[in-house]
Amino acid sequence: MQRIAMRGFVGGPAAPTLEFGVTQTVHVLNGPNLNLLGKREPEIYGRDTLADVEARCRAAGEPHGIAIRLLQSNAEHQIIDWIHEARTEAAGIIINPGAFTHTSIAILDALHAYEGPVLEVHISNVHKRESFRHHSYVSLRADGVIAGFGIQGYELAVLRMARLLAG
Ligand code: DQA
Fold this sequence. Notes:
It is built from five helices and six strands. Helix 2 packs parallel to helix 5 and helix 3 (about 75-90) runs parallel beside helix 4. The chain is an alpha/beta fold. The chain is about 30% helix and about 20% strand. The structure holds 1,3,4-trihydroxy-5-OXO-cyclohexanecarboxylic acid.
């Protein structure tokens, strides 16, 4: 069951009309070391922080009635728990699993237990990097993958999510 927030009331004296804008919540989940975004290997990941990512996601989602809940953890079990929570709390998941992308069957299984759309984001172009980054378990579930667009990839994922949720 999604959380529905009602936004807006449009009424005219002659023909009063109720218009409810539906807000849908999208979870933006981030894996290990992404708390250091902006400080960690800036030549690869840039100088923007996760707070900047959150602000950009909110700005991208707002015109489409999408509310963002951005979370980050270095712990695999926490990410799995958040995916489980998303089953009842989120209309869609955008996930940058960090290095768990390449290792975690458990995160893949949790995503298989999630019914909404899933988009996978990587800040760097993982295909241009070491070969161990070329395989993603999460891609076996993801409805779309964005890599190498810097943090703009998150904004693009929010826009794609808006389209998918619009039906
Ligand atoms: C990353 C790519 C991963 O290979 C790496 O382990 C990360 C970040 C990215 O956003 O480019 O932590 O997911």
